[in-house]
Specification:
Elements (H helix, E strand, L loop, with lengths): L1 E4 L5 E7 L4 E6 L4 E4 L4 H9 L3 H8 L6 E3 L4 H13 L1
Antiparallel strand pairs: 1-2, 2-3, 3-4, 4-5
């Protein structure tokens, strides 16, 4: 999963898995949401937006289905992959 740090009051980090169009968003309040069916272009525009929170509100929040994620889940998966493949 590709990850980018975000600056702003609402969002802290975004992760994107192009294989299944999964966008993982980490919020300032500690929430993690996983959005499904997201195109790479949406992820790239989110990361490039002057205000990621506004872009999220306008283009992501009500446009894609989501489920709660867990903080650190992506880190555990990355460590497991690193253990397997170096």
């Amino acid at each position: 999963m590709e990850r980018k740090k975000l600056r702003g009051a609402t969002l802290r980090e975004a992760g994107f898995d192009a294989r299944d169009g999964r966008l993982e968003l980490h919020f300032a309040n500690g929430d993690v949401r996983v959005y499904k069916g997201v195109q790479r272009e949406v992820f790239e525009r989110l990361c490039a937006a002057p205000n990621a929170g506004s872009y999220f509100d306008d283009r992501i929040r009500d446009e894609y289905p989501w489920e709660r994620g867990s903080a650190g889940a992506g880190d555990a998966a990355k460590r497991a992959a690193d253990d397997l493949f170096g």
